[in-house]
Amino acid sequence: MSTAVLSRDAAAELDARDPLREFRERFVIDPEIVYLDGNSLGCLPVATVARLERVVAQWGGRGVRGWDEGWLELPIGVGDRLGAAALGAAPGQVAVGDSTTVCFYKLVSAALDARPGRTRIVTDLDNFPTDRYVLGDRAGGREPSDVARHVGSDTALVTFSHVSYRSAHIADMAAIDAIVDDAGALMLWDLSHSAGSVPLSLDRDHAPLAVGCTYKYLNGGPGAPAYMYVRRELQAELRQPIWGWLGRRDPFEMAPGYEPAPGMRGFLSGTPPVLALAAIDEGVRIVGEAGIERIRAKGIALTELAIALADGCLGELGVRVASPRDPARRGAHVALAHPNARELCAALIERGVIPDFRRPDVIRFGFSPLSTRFVDVWDGVDALRELLSPT
Amino acid sequence: MSTAVLSRDAAAELDARDPLREFRERFVIDPEIVYLDGNSLGCLPVATVARLERVVAQWGGRGVRGWDEGWLELPIGVGDRLGAAALGAAPGQVAVGDSTTVCFYKLVSAALDARPGRTRIVTDLDNFPTDRYVLGDRAGGREPSDVARHVGSDTALVTFSHVSYRSAHIADMAAIDAIVDDAGALMLWDLSHSAGSVPLSLDRDHAPLAVGCTYKYLNGGPGAPAYMYVRRELQAELRQPIWGWLGRRDPFEMAPGYEPAPGMRGFLSGTPPVLALAAIDEGVRIVGEAGIERIRAKGIALTELAIALADGCLGELGVRVASPRDPARRGAHVALAHPNARELCAALIERGVIPDFRRPDVIRFGFSPLSTRFVDVWDGVDALRELLSPT
User: Fold this and answer.
1) Nearest Cβ partner for B136 among A30, A125, A243
2) What ipTM was predicted for this assembly?
3) For site-directed labelling of B130, which of A114, B22, B164, B358 has its Cα 20 to 30 A away?
4) Is the Cβ pair B64, A356 closer than 8 Å?
């Protein structure tokens, strides 16, 4: 990289000094690939292979008795561990189960029911599509930064992604929670692109509601179920709409009439997906061991390097950094805009560099601080430079 | 068993002549246990262990590229194979994903929206609790046999279990579908206790809608996701309420505005649970290989034996057969009623016989024709006889 601000050797030197470098060995990684898409699907933890073998063997050996031996506690147990490792949530406020879409639907519905007479929902037109689709025609698009101007006495619900799936912009959670609370509305955060990469303080920031997916920085596996956070004070007031046997007080009564279980169990619906929950548990454990503050520090260093390299050698080739330049307002991925982003992504994948493409013009380089090296950042930017350089 | 109509050797002889006997080897089975709860959680197929290893390895090796290599097709692909093996459904009418509760909620909501102005929902008060909870206060209880008297021009939706989770009673699907259709209402079947044990002919019987779980006779694993069947003619008319990115026309557009994908994909919501879908695929495959008609024939033989044995030696000990005596109207489990059912179940489990208890007084002996032997039936009844016999 002739014009680089930093040589590949210098990037390798950063890896040698990285306090998290040994965590890369905790994942199954193809050495031929530069994987920059852990923000879409995180890597497979080595421990997950053995954990899945154990839970499958438990199914084989114990059959239905497994339900009395810990399976039934997984939605809340994994939720508590996730809350401690990544969400800044005290126990009893997180439940895992159902897809992100279903979790989001449940909490939107619960929030709207809890604010009768208020008709406005405020969201960000650049929010992740599934969130906008669940809101349907009720969505009105606003940037988080000017949320105060758009929230009023008719607002029932405000919902944003904490980290934008496109730009990696980080919303100011505490400030927005306060604005929304002052208006008497409820705030629902989508943490899909935050949890496991950016520290969260849901309790301290007075976040009322949140959902998020587990297969990105939490490495839960393809299509792993999502989680819901409901602040303790709200749990008795809010009622989710999908009344299944598992969310009922004493589910094994199988009695007439639905009365929700107290606490987070009342936000569950059907039978917990045991294999998937076991896999999430292992992903969450690694985040806890590494420590979210160290993960965040490395995430900033990786994105800073990517931006410095992009400025140094990609700007003149027509690539624009489309993520915030202030690291405090940027998550763990970097959006690089180019008119031919789609073709460039395909060509990068051809060369063994795996980013993803987001319409209309974004190449997203996602960095998983536990498994991405500084040389991976260098190699990714260099591959893009080569593709764009006149031959 | 002194009073038995059949000796254990005679039961072993039935096993020796069983055309499905070799299928037992396709499952992981603890030889010390008499497992009579495959109607709650089916056994682990041997092939599932290897299939899960493969899909986990694919996650590890291919990462996000797995989505382009078959993962995205799993909800409909597994659905089509399930439809062929167990539901009597031509391709393009079954989708797998979400829990049974969530699938049921989606189709209830879609059906009610499609019948505006009609206010009545008809169900069976003995229907599985989760179904009744989703319906909430709207449920009015009726037996399937007298459905015609309770369905009228104000009825939007009728929903029953095809096989009752308690008694194993089989509802007359074709007759009920015709009655409900004549009234202009929609019929929604819960197939959880049927699929994989009792042949279904959804297409031929003109069933409009169905859901069912996959972890019972389909051996999909603890908490495995459920399926929805939506008759082809209804797919464009019905709209499910949980609008996620995967159910949208061209999900990767991530464009504004939700427009459902055509066909069954429009009934999906979030990202498909890949590991769980792979496991279901293996369970479904075994059912397809064995053939649902042979499975049904053995299911009848197993329950006939259980009832004959119960009549022969348990009746005088206070046990009443609480399942239909007509095998044509009985699924693959047998309900044995006794005032001390709860304690008896616990004592059976202590002895290595695994049934389950259903309030208030039912011991449920579930037979999975692919893995349950005639001697298991004999041993289960004999263990109960011993427990009840005066010492």
Assistant:
1) A243
2) 0.94
3) A114
4) yes
